[in-house]
Structure formats: structure tokens, C-alpha cells
Specification:
This protein is mainly β and about 200 residues long. It has helices at about 130-140, 185-200, and strands at about 25-30, 35-40, 45-50, 60-65, 70-75, 85-90, 95-105, 110-115, 120-125, 150-155, 160-165, 170-175.
């Protein structure tokens, strides 16, 4: 019997063992300390906390659960990687869950969530406003204007949104359709770190 291909795999294959991100809406908020984030579910409970480790040769963002247990780590693929691959590794299994790959062209923020073994695209996260996206890279004050992203599955169908909010600290709402077959946990984890990666 033939092994199922990655495209036939259920989204559960990309679950993170240490955390249960089964809600369809999350609030991501930056704390007063730069690149430190809190993720709350739709009931207001803390689902994740993350903070960029400073002074590392490779960028590293460890996340913990609301109970302060190790959840997963996001690590840059290359030394001082500004645009490139970031791997999400499950803290419970030490396995790579997905790779987050930035398509950095003309300052436009497009990201692809990929299978770590095959490189197959599982989902894409694209900026809704290309002019604002470019301006955010050129003029720091433009970062006060909230950005918005759309989440698409591997077939290019819209399955969710990341909506920025007006705030002195970056704040986002991440929503993914219940019917979507994208790996929800991996996409939510990816969305949580986009702001930190794009505002370096």
C-alpha cells in the first residue's frame, strides 16, 4: 500500500504537542518590551508567551504555554538571518513542525508555511496592503499604522486573516476558518512571530 503524500496528510500532522491551539481566533499583543508577545484565545486566557532571545548568533524566539511550560522555538536558518527560513520546533518532541519562509521582494511581506521535509507549501500569509507594507520597511513611523494579512491554503483559497489594531504596541487578531485544512497550530505560531521578524 502506498504511503500517503504530504498533500493527503491531515493538518493534525503539523500539530504542536505541547500546546492545544484549537480556537479559531487569537489576540497577539506586544508587551512594553520589544519583541515580547502574549497570545490570548477568544476567552482571554493566555495561550502562549514568546520573547526573542537577544545576542544570539542565530535569531531565536522561544515560546511557552500559559502555564510557563516550553511550547516551541522559532529559530533562524542562517546566522543573522534577516530574510529567510525560520523553523518552528516542537519543544516536546524536538521535531521540526514547519518552516516559515519569507518571500522578500520589493519590501512586500509574503510568507509561506512549508513542510520541513518536503518543502511543500502548506499555507501562505500575504500582506493585504502592498504600499503600506513597503512604507513600513522604509519609514519607521509607518509601523504605527496596523498592517493586515490574508491567510491562504495550499490551493490559494482564503482561510483566515491577521488584522492589526491601532495601538502604541503592536496588536493583532489572528483568525482561521474552522473548515480550513491548513495546519492551524503552525499557522497561528507563524502569525505570532511575523511582527517581530518584520520590525527588526
Amino acid at each position: 500500500m502506498a504511503e500517503p503524500s504530504a498533500s493527503d496528510s491531515p493538518s493534525g500532522d503539523y500539530d504542536i504537542s505541547t500546546v492545544d491551539l484549537d480556537d479559531d481566533r487569537y489576540e497577539v499583543k506586544q508587551s512594553a518590551i520589544r519583541n515580547k508577545y502574549v497570545v490570548r484565545d477568544s476567552t482571554g486566557d493566555v495561550a502562549l508567551r514568546g520573547k526573542q532571545k537577544m545576542f544570539k548568533m542565530k535569531e531565536e524566539f522561544p515560546f511557552v504555554t500559559g502555564d510557563d511550560e516550553d511550547a516551541f522555538t522559532v529559530k533562524a536558518g542562517g546566522i543573522m538571518d534577516v530574510a529567510g527560513n525560520y523553523t518552528i520546533t516542537d519543544a516536546g518532541t524536538d521535531e521540526e513542525v514547519v518552516v516559515l519562509d519569507e518571500d522578500y521582494s520589493l519590501f512586500v511581506e509574503n510568507w509561506t508555511v512549508r513542510d520541513p521535509d518536503t518543502g511543500e507549501a502548506l499555507a501562505t500569509i500575504e500582506s493585504k496592503s502592498k504600499p503600506l507594507s513597503a512604507l513600513r520597511h522604509l519609514v519607521s513611523v509607518a509601523n504605527l499604522i496596523p498592517n493586515k494579512y490574508e491567510i491562504f491554503d495550499a490551493d490559494g483559497d482564503h482561510v483566515g486573516d491577521i488584522e492589526g489594531k491601532f495601538s502604541l504596541r503592536d496588536a493583532y487578531t489572528v483568525s482561521i476558518d474552522d473548515a480550513s485544512d491548513v495546519p492551524k497550530e503552525a499557522v497561528i505560531a507563524s502569525a505570532c512571530i511575523l511582527d517581530a521578524l518584520e520590525n527588526q
